[in-house]
Amino acid sequence: MPIAISDSDDPRIEAYRAVRERDLVGREHRFVAEGEVVLRVLARQSRFAPESLLLAENRVDSLRDILANLPSDVPVYTANRAVMDAIVGFPIHRGILAVVRRAPLPPVEELLARLPERALVVGLVGLANHDNVGGIFRNAAAFGADAVLLDSETCDPLYRKAIRVSVGGALVVPFTRAPSADAMVQALVEAKFDVIALSPSGKETLARLERSPRAALLLGAEGPGLPADLLARTRTVSIPMSGGFDSLNVATTSGIALHHLAGTK
Amino acid sequence: MPIAISDSDDPRIEAYRAVRERDLVGREHRFVAEGEVVLRVLARQSRFAPESLLLAENRVDSLRDILANLPSDVPVYTANRAVMDAIVGFPIHRGILAVVRRAPLPPVEELLARLPERALVVGLVGLANHDNVGGIFRNAAAFGADAVLLDSETCDPLYRKAIRVSVGGALVVPFTRAPSADAMVQALVEAKFDVIALSPSGKETLARLERSPRAALLLGAEGPGLPADLLARTRTVSIPMSGGFDSLNVATTSGIALHHLAGTK
């Protein structure tokens, strides 16, 4: 049964207060997911379980099927728009929020050890843009990547906007963080992954690349790209482009490369 | 020689006033481009020529090379940040704007008739999102597409944000508008293009598709996709995805498909 909240100071909805400000400082143990598409992924196929939901009253009816399947100990709070906006701190057009507990991040070695003999992993180095990280998780989910590894400079995939751009992919694809890009590559090599670094200066061409059973795709930020010492230790691959316009968005690049790697033997 | 503007009401910079409001109603004869990356494309390889520039004083030095190569009848106005913000109507962080004259849009048949025997065209149907249209133009430029065709529902690629997301690609790849998606397909068929419609229900798989010398890639909006009557008249192609997560961004989809089509004989 939904619990109606009429006072924006109600202590039961403490976790939903000042969403943006808390997003900015980062949340250590929880994250916030928003919108119907993301909530459906959260309920159906996510690695995470919600602690509670906060819904605008007028959204409850369209979510009956999700609510019916929630564990009974997950409180569903409802509020009218004015109260919800006052809680959250800005007009929350989608009217659908969930507070979700984070899972501990396993060491890279442990995550890799769990993967099957044939596996596809994505490694992100220095990706500080939430749209790009979200877009990459969307593609990783679409092409069935087994895991995503993040270096210490890559931003949080469980940031609200990254989850939204990922269309829930950030809740589905297992990920963890490596202490550094070097440590990430070392762990991949030790786990017998063929490490493929995408770079405009790559020696092989993506379209001709035959993948190994265990393949890891490394992506760096647009502009700086992957560090030179990392390129020197990996198999470098480029996507040939038209003269004078050598520029792809990194999320698009991930889609092109994952499509190729997921489809080749 | 740059012309210093000290009064935001100066009639010479009339075209830069209230940029956002004018973007919203649309500009019939001109458009506004912003930022250094876009200005470099505009100066070097664009199909369009600027009528004038408006630069923040502190940006002039880093653009000397561009300014030196501008035709001498293109006025370059400069202003301090406060005056520039007052002209434009919001804080214009990039400090670089150009007003550019549009070119007339040729009939689709005329644009297609100009293309070489081997040609790659992108057709957009019902794409109302500027980020997606900008992203598609970026990919079209990166993979050397010869032209983009827009149906009447697809938004303006020369909208400020679409140009920015395209990293200038919207200024490079020739485009025009068809009266309808039907008319677009008919013109493509008459010009001997193999019309490839991307759809989750497509009968062929992209990775196995062999392209014809003249290939046209049709893309519809995420969600509705391409209309059924159009799919019935074209070669339909899908991108296989992982179970339960059948979702790619349409700009990413264009990148995957153009990479395949540009690379195959």
Structural topology:
2 copies of one chain form a homodimer.
Chain A lengths: L2 E2 L14 H7 L4 E5 L1 H9 L5 E7 L7 H6 L6 E4 L1 H8 L7 E6 L6 H6 L5 E7 L4 H13 L4 E4 L9 H6 L9 E3 L3 H10 L3 E5 L5 E2 L8 E7 L7 H5 L2 E4 L11 H14 L2
Comma- or semicolon-separated keywords:
about 260 residues, 10 helices, seven-stranded parallel beta sheet, homodimer, Alpha/beta knot, 60s Ribosomal Protein L30, Chain: A
* Arithmetic mean of pLDDT of chain A: 93
Instruction: Spell out the CATH superfamily of the largest domain in chain A.
Output: SPOUT methyltransferase, trefoil knot domain
Computed structural class of chain A? alpha/beta
Percentage of residues in DSSP E strands of chain A: 15-25%
* N-to-C order of helices and strands of chain A: EHEHEHEHEHEHEHEHEEEHEH
Number of domains of chain A: 2
Contiguous uncertain segments of 5+ residues of chain A:
none
Instruction: Summarize the largest interface: chains and residue counts.
Output: A-B, 33 and 34 residues
Count, helices of chain A: 10
Total beta-strand segments of chain A: 12
Oligomer: homodimer
> Would you tell me which CATH topology of the largest domain in chain A applies?
Alpha/beta knot
